[in-house]
Design a protein that fits this description.
The complex is a heterotrimer of chains A (435), B (699) and C (156). Chain B has 699 residues and is of the alpha/beta class. Chain B is built from 20 helices and 32 strands. Helices cover 24% and strands 21% of the residues of chain B. In chain B, a hairpin with a 5-residue loop joins strand 25 (518-521) and strand 26. Chain C is an alpha+beta fold. Chain C has helices at residues 3-12, 23-34, 39-49, 53-60, 82-86, 89-100, 145-151, and strands at residues 74-79, 106-107, 113-118, 130-132, 135-137. The longest helix of chain C is centred in the first third of the chain and has 12 residues, at 23-34. Classes of the chains: A alpha/beta (435), B alpha/beta (699), C alpha+beta (156). Chains A and C meet through strand 3, strand 5, strand 8 and helix 13 of A and helix 2, helix 5, helix 6 and strand 3 of C.
């Protein structure tokens, strides 16, 4: 286990944004190989590789492809989720910026598996430079005749985290407000334009060419048995060398934090790691020997999520961390489901009162209760994402919340790293609500 | 079609079998169990699952509460509602708590109070007290989103019923949700009013007091009012309505869902125009023309004078009917005039096409059509508004909408036309599975039936000595006015003096459709029952017509029920008044008459510029003009253009444009209509005087 | 007619499945033309796509990158989400406030720059991330702010 370049293979040595360079290392060879196979054979290979989705839930791509209703008379769509907006995540961005052709090659192969003729890549609007790189790569590949009968459209979002949720993404792609849809019907049956649709994360799709190249069996041997392959881990926060590291799944978290990222910056103490982007339960320092794979992280009560670690040192007030995080989810709640829309705002109100030193023990209890009443109640997991981290802070750092009540002020006394950031500001986008 | 297969499941342990595809909310209902809902409303299209009120425990399924409204039944499914599942009860309680955290508790001053689903469900499933101690979200309130509708955003629970109606039923796209998350709110575009023919339905859809009627605000509490089930009398659709009355006045009109006719929708005219009952110029007493205008006369004198006028004219009397009368009123008048005076001359409101009863079907059949052929000179919505909603529903269901007669018959096609003369032959040529003629008047069919069954006498060609005008709409009709001008004397029957000024020598007060008992026949050919919701400020027409008839030796009952039975014996198969129930059925189809000749083609219209379509607007006429809240809906000083034509001429919505034809030129405001075919322009007929059928439009 | 109309038609053609899909790209084009999305812009987009202005407003107001209020010629955005915040985004915000003389959410008096704080820009490992007219500056520290302000508008 350890560092291994699969997704980013070759990108250190060459400028793989150029088609010629990518082809020089065997790029796009997977496409004719895949096209010689029948879709069901290709799906078999994907199933055998046991490649699990990198977008968060870890659902195997082969299973997803096999759910596509290929008998439908409607067109089938492949949609690549490049909305990457989870705080802490910046891995998809790196793939697009450095190996766009690998993503495109993955699209062409995956499209064949589900008999899709039109692929959409939905990229978050803020990624302008990456959009330009991707568009150029798409044009280059199209002009080189690599697309065959397939069309590929890169669609830019316009600033909404919720559009990373697959059904909200579809609504957005249809030109609507990006709000999640009820499931069933699931996208493989009724997705984009009501047609069967497969949705995958950038890293999932960009991994597909290596499966074709190596063969499913060899691929499955990389990484952890239950989670084969590599993942690009984004690590940020209070570490010496933040950035992206492509590692085999199963690499211990400690290695990533201390060996690759150089440990905690400025000689501080590790306080917490939020391992999957800001939406998952945080781990305490005694939990970081966990292998970085779906099942191991699941076993200790958190999630693999977006493979994005936010490392927090001992200067940070956990109430402030909770407040900042919850404000984000409140801001991003689409407003469709009652528990998420109202609950995130209520949580912010409670956290603001606690942070200001005006809260009570009842407020802490209420915060717990509001959170638990939000869990699992909405169409998508955004509301849960607001609750998971905060519930873990309450569980593991509950004393800090109580200290705010006890002292009638923040125990960090203006010295927390997040001081100031959490103050109300009108500065966000137009729909800011004051809690 | 084969019967759908049945699926058996349990709801709170009760076994129930329902057709495959049934939603859980309906399945529970079949088991006698109510699953509470806010956003769920199947008439608005697929469920959205937004409010999370309907959370239940469903097995098999994930171990968390499921939104019942978005699920359909499966064999062996076990559904547990709040009645038997702690998880569901807690989930529903949580949803209500979340809904209430920002909902003002102003129930005592809220119009919805007492008939509010949120209030009811909170009472049954909600938390007893609030744990929310922060200031609630505030908005400027209430804001008028139109002169008829007020919006209180603080009360809104964001169920999206109103916006889904606007987007997916009326398809007007004017009422939307803007912003995001907790800042989301319902809005129209900027300060523009929600100006659309069906806007008022959102008031009834709103499950809280967020969208309220400006007419009804603070007008009555649920325990002070009565709802009278009746039928709208303002257009030939005959939507089923409830008239809410308080202290003898109509306070609002609600829909009373007839699934075959209106599916619970009303147009804004039907909903709001009842204000005309209380118009200041309402005629309460008979009026006699003097040199100084009308003056009131006592009833006995008025009847004496009417008798004199009728005797003087005898059979040289012509009767002009408006088509707004009930069957009984029209029959009463017909008996008086045709039997009492032997005067058979009449201006009937409509030409009713023969042979269409072989294509009779409920309006709801339009939605099932494979294609809908609309052959109308006037916009459907202006003439029979709800029919437009059915056509839209058909298109959403996948039907093709055609505006020309296909060359070959089309399987499963439905015809909708306002061409009385050719209706039956068009339907035959199309091989239509159903056909609808859109009459101009609300009860033109019933009035024609009543008139013709009152006597067998034939009209003789005479110069009219006396014209009897029944109804304000008839009195305002240019043709009737021209006829009246030729007569020596005119008797009018109507509600408003202004309609008869300068026309009638004697005016007898008329009632409105909300003030009388009787029957009407809608455009499907369905007999429906109008019920007196409030007492008119004047005697019922039948009462005094019966008295007059007696003076001419004609026996006529003053009671609608008795009169109806007389008519029914002749032309409605003898059914009794009591049988014309609250939800009237459609009579069976007639056997098709022999083959009909192919429809005569109409000469194509050619000309330079845009073809001008003129029509009688839905929002026009005496009732609308006397409803101040509807003034903004009246198309006046406007011309509608197709967006393409507007763009070609560099015209934007709201621009002043010059409309020229036939040497006439007019300055009008441009309005863009997405439903208008390129190359055409549209404006109310009453404003198009002097314009030819083709116009040049420029900025 | 207008150039915008034609440009929107070109986008529309790329979505044979549904013209609505062109709504977001069309709003972006309109915003490029107007600088923000005034009611006229929303009307123009609506006309070009056979949608209603209210619909366009509904969509535009859902997304953070559409401006429904006038903004300066340039927009400076600082990420203040967790990763940036943990390593001092607040100091960067303060440096911009000082340098520009406006608070977050405001526009400079000369109308040149709107300054706002935003949610995660996806540059967490290169904190603090600042976007000037959507072009990222990474690893920004308070002492780097004056140079960024000086360079605003200098590079397209
Ligand atoms: C609120 C929310 C935000 C999400 N954001 C993203 C995202 O930015 N990128 C992503 O790939 N998946 C995101 N997901 C997960 C997607 O819904 C979906 O599961 C994923 O794109 C599937 O791809 P995969 O099978 O390749 O993992 C999000 C989910 C939720 C509930
Ligand atoms: S105004 Fe009423 S109908 Fe519309 S979203 Fe709000 S609560 Fe629902
Ligand atoms: S009724 Fe089911 S979510 Fe609203």
């Amino acid at each position: 286990m350890g560092a291994r370049n699969v997704l980013l293979a070759g990108a250190g040595e060459r400028d793989l944004t150029k088609l010629a360079e990518y082809r020089a290392i065997g790029g796009y060879d997977g496409v004719p190989k895949a096209l010689r196979l029948k879709p069901e054979q290709l799906i078999e290979i994907l199933l055998a590789s046991n490649l699990r989705g990198r977008g968060g839930a870890g659902f195997p791509i082969g299973r997803k492809a096999s759910l596509i209703d290929r008998s439908s008379s409607k067109p089938k769509y492949l949609v690549v989720n490049a909305d990457e907006s989870e705080p802490g995540a910046f891995k998809d961005r790196e793939v697009i910026a450095r190996v766009p052709h690998r993503l495109i090659e993955g699209c062409l192969i995956a499209a064949h598996a589900i008999e899709c003729k039109h692929v959409f890549i939905y990229i978050r609007g803020e990624y302008l430079a990456e959009f330009e790189i991707l568009e150029r790569a798409v044009d280059e590949a199209r002009e080189a005749g690599l697309f065959g009968e397939v069309e590929l459209t890169v669609y830019r979002g316009a600033g909404a985290y919720i559009c990373g949720e697959e059904t909200a993404l579809l609504d957005s792609l249809e030109g609507r407000r990006g709000q999640p849809r009820p499931r069933p019907p699931f996208p493989p049956v009724q997705g984009l334009f009501n047609a069967p649709t497969q949705i995958n994360n950038v890293c999932t799709i960009a991994t597909v060419p290596s499966i074709i190249e190596l063969g499913a069996e060899k691929f499955a041997q990389i990484g952890a048995a239950s989670s084969p392959g590599t993942a690009i881990f984004s690590i940020s926060g209070n570490v010496v060398r933040p950035g992206n590291y492509e590692l085999e799944l199963g690499t211990p978290m400690r290695e990533l934090i201390y060996d690759f990222a150089g440990g905690i910056a400025e000689g501080r103490e590790l306080k917490a790691v939020i391992p999957g982007g800001s939406s998952v339960p945080a781990l305490s320092p005694d939990q970081i020997d966990v292998p970085l794979d779906y099942d191991s992280l699941g076993a200790i009560g958190t999630f693999f999520g977006a493979a994005s670690l936010i490392v927090v040192d001992d200067r940070c007030c956990m109430v402030q961390l909770a407040l900042r995080s919850t404000k984000f989810y409140m801001h991003e709640s689409c407003g469709k489901c009652t528990p998420c829309r109202e609950g995130t705002r209520w949580m912010v109100q409670l956290l603001e009162r606690l942070e200001a030193g005006r809260g009570s023990y009842d407020d802490i209890a209420l915060l717990r209760s509001v959170g638990s009443r939000m869990l699992g109640k909405s169409l998508c997991a955004l509301g849960d994402f607001a609750v998971y981290p905060v519930a873990s802070y309450l569980e593991k750092w509950g004393a800090e919340f109580e200290a705010h009540v006890e002292l009638g002020r923040c125990p960090y006394d203006g010295e927390s790293t997040l001081e100031g950031i959490v103050a109300p500001s009108d500065a966000h986008a137009h729909h800011e609500v004051h809690a | 079609m084969a019967e759908p297969a049945l699926v058996t499941l349990t709801v709170d342990g009760r076994e129930v079998s329902v057709p495959k595809g049934t939603g859980l909310v309906e399945a529970a209902l079949a088991a006698g169990i109510e699953i509470p809902v806010f956003c769920y409303e199947p008439r608005l299209g697929p469920p959205v699952g937004a409010c999370r009120m309907c959370l239940c425990e469903v097995a098999p399924g994930p171990l968390k509460p499921q939104a019942a409204c978005t699920l359909t039944v499966a064999e062996g499914m076990a559904v547990k509602t709040a009645l038997t599942s702690e998880m569901a009860a807690d989930a529903q309680n949580a949803t209500l708590e979340f809904i209430l955290v920002n909902h003002p508790l102003d129930c005592p001053v809220c119009d919805k109070g007492g008939e509010c689903p949120l209030q009811d469900l909170t009472f049954r499933y909600g938390p007893g007290s609030t744990r929310m101690t922060f200031p609630k979200r505030t908005f400027e309130k209430p804001i008028p989103i139109s002169p008829t509708i007020a919006l209180d955003r603080e009360r809104c629970i964001l169920c999206y019923r109103c916006t889904r109606f606007s987007e997916s039923v009326a398809e007007d796209g004017q009422l939307v949700a803007v912003e995001r998350g907790a800042a989301s709110m319902i809005a129209t575009f900027g300060d523009e009013p929600y100006r659309a023919p069906f806007s008022g339905n959102v008031i009834e859809l709103c499950p809280v007091g967020a969208l309220t009627s400006t007419q009804y605000r603070f007008e009555g509490r649920p325990w002070e009012i009565q709802n009278v089930p009746t039928v709208c009398g303002l257009c030939p659709v005959g939507c089923n309505i409830s008239a809410t009355t308080r202290e003898g006045n109509v306070k609002r009109i609600l829909s009373r869902n007839h699934p075959e006719i209106d599916e619970g929708w009303l147009c804004d005219k039907g909903r709001f125009a009842f204000q005309h009952l209380q118009a200041l110029d309402r005629i309460d007493d008979p009026l006699r023309k003097t040199d100084a205008g009308f003056e009131p006369v006592a009833w006995n004198d008025a009847l004496d004078q009417a008798e004199l006028m009728l005797r003087a004219a005898g059979s040289a009397t012509v009767t002009a009917l408006s088509g707004g009368e009930t069957v009984e009123q029209a029959y009463g008048l017909a008996r008086l005039l045709r039997v009492g005076l032997d005067s058979h001359g009449a201006v009937l409101p409509e030409e009713i096409p023969d042979g269409l009863s072989a294509f009779r079907a409920p309006l709801s059949s339009i939605r099932e059509a494979a294609s809908v052929v609309v052959l109308c000179d006037e916009p459907v919505v202006e003439r029979a508004p709800i029919v437009d909603l059915w056509i839209k529903a058909a298109r959403r269901a996948g039907a093709e909408i055609l505006h020309e007669l296909p060359e070959q018959p089309v399987e499963g096609a439905v015809l909708i036309t306002d061409d009385a003369e050719r209706a039956a032959s068009l339907a035959t040529a199309l091989g239509a599975s159903a056909a609808f003629y859109l009459p101009r008047t609300p009860n033109g069919r019933g009035v024609t039936d009543a008139w013709s069954c009152a006597s067998d006498g034939e009209p003789t060609e005479v110069e009219p000595a006396l014209v009897v005008i029944s109804g304000d709409e008839a009195a305002l009709d240019p043709g009737v006015r021209a006829l009246a001008a030729r007569a020596k004397a005119v008797i009018g029957i109507g509600m408003f003096a202004e309609s008869f000024a300068g026309v009638a020598n004697l005016v007898l007060p008329g009632t409105s459709y909300l003030e009388r008992d009787g029957t009407t026949v809608n455009l499907e050919g369905r007999l429906q029952r109008q019920r007196r919701s409030v007492i008119a400020p004047c005697p019922d027409e039948l009462a005094w017509v019966a008295k007059l008839a007696e003076r001419f030796g004609v026996e006529l009952s003053p009671h609608a029920s008795t009169v109806f039975e007389e008519v029914s014996a002749i032309c409605y198969g003898g059914i009794s008044f009591g049988h014309v129930g609250e939800h009237a059925p459609l009579p069976p189809r007639a056997i098709a008459a022999g083959p009909l000749p192919a429809p005569t083609p109409r000469p194509p219209l050619a000309g330079k510029g845009l073809r001008l379509l003129t029509y009688k607007p839905l929002f026009s006429g005496p009732a609308v003009e006397r409803t101040p809240e509807l003034e903004f809906q009246i198309p006046s000083g406007e011309i509608e253009l197709a967006p393409v034509d507007a763009r070609e001429r560099k015209i934007a919505a709201g621009d002043q444009v010059t409309v020229r034809s036939n040497g006439t030129s007019r300055r009008l405001r441009a309005r863009l209509a997405r439903d208008l075919a390129p190359g055409t322009a549209r404006m109310p007929r009453s404003e198009a005087a002097g314009l030819h059928d083709h116009v040049e439009v420029s900025k | 007619m207008s150039l915008l109309f034609d440009r929107i038609q070109a986008v529309r053609e790329r979505f044979p499945e549904g013209a609505r899909s062109a709504a977001i790209p069309a709003l972006r084009l309109a915003q490029e033309e107007y600088g923000w999305l005034p009611p006229e812009a929303l009307r123009e987009v609506a006309d070009a796509l056979d949608l209603t202005p209210a619909y366009c407003h509904a969509v535009a107001s859902f997304y953070d990158m559409f401006h429904l209020e006038p903004v300066g010629k340039h927009v400076v955005e600082v990420c203040t989400n967790l990763s940036c915040a943990l390593v001092g985004a607040q100091r960067v915000v303060e440096a911009f406030e000082e340098e520009l003389g406006v608070r977050a959410g405001e526009t400079t008096a000369d109308g040149k720059v709107t300054f706002r704080t935003v949610e995660c820009l996806g540059g967490c490992g290169y904190a603090t991330v600042v976007a000037v007219d959507s072009r990222y500056h990474q690893h920004v520290r308070p002492d780097g702010v004056p140079a960024i302000v000086k360079g605003i508008g200098g590079r397209a």
